[in-house]
Design goal:
The protein is α+β, with helices and mostly antiparallel strands and about 200 residues long. The chain folds into three domains: about 55 residues, RNA-binding S4 domain (Structural Genomics Hypothetical 15.5 Kd Protein In mrcA-pckA Intergenic Region, Chain A, Roll); about 60 residues, Pseudouridine synthase I, catalytic domain, N-terminal subdomain (Alpha-Beta Plaits), CATH 3.30.70.580; about 70 residues, Alpha-Beta Plaits (2-Layer Sandwich). It has five helices and 14 strands. About 20% of the residues are buried.
Length: about 200
């Protein structure tokens, strides 16, 4: 799996991507024993040997955190406009961790945080077809025709077209419907926008 060197270093928890660029430019990073100073260098995670400050990059302890994100927290590591970020919910860590994917500020649910760049890539890249399962409650009774419209691919939402999804009714009455929605993509506010489109 190929990835930009600065992104790999940052995702490994060594430092930020900007600091990784500084380390590369100053000759502190080696790939397969050779010093690399070119920004934008692409490496193969599975085959290349990488050292930062003479230490193997893969020597860092991997951390995996399962967090139940409450409503009101932004899924980001740093955002000057966010009132609260998910990192504020974590204990103090010696390594940097990053969210795998994201949940909207107004959404609660399971979130993985890790410094394992390979795992993050495999969980989020569409080619691996990893299901994302959500539970959504919407106003009014949603009928089968609406569900079929949402399940098929090709719904246009602003600047993108949705892929096919699966929807199962969990509970329904005259005032609301609770559904299980399974996606293989995670666009910004996708579920909210999908249901707004067919109201």
């Amino acid at each position: 799996m190929k990835q930009r060197l600065n992104k790999l270093i940052a995702h490994s928890g060594v430092c930020s991507r900007r600091k990784a660029d500084e380390l590369i430019s100053s000759g502190k990073v080696c790939v397969n024993g050779k010093t690399v100073t070119v920004l934008g260098t692409v490496v193969d995670i599975n085959h290349d040997s990488i050292t930062v400050n003479a230490k193997p990059l893969n020597a860092e302890k991997k951390i995996y955190i399962l967090l139940h994100k409450p409503v009101g927290y932004t899924t980001t590591t740093k955002d000057e406009h966010a009132e609260k970020t998910v990192l504020e919910l974590l204990p103090k860590l010696s390594e940097r961790v990053y969210p795998v994917g994201r949940l909207d500020k107004d959404t609660a649910g399971l979130l993985i945080l890790t410094n394992d760049g390979k795992l993050s890539y495999e969980l989020t890249h569409p080619k691996f077809e990893i299901d994302r399962v959500y539970e959504a409650t919407v106003k009014n009774a949603v009928n089968r025709l609406t569900i079929k419209k949402l399940e098929r691919s090709g719904l246009e939402i602003d600047d993108y077209v949705t892929s096919a999804c699966r929807i199962r009714i969990i509970d329904r009455d005259k005032t609301k419907t609770t559904l299980q929605v399974t996606l293989r993509e995670g666009r910004k506010r996708q579920i909210r926008r999908m249901f707004n489109l067919v109201r």
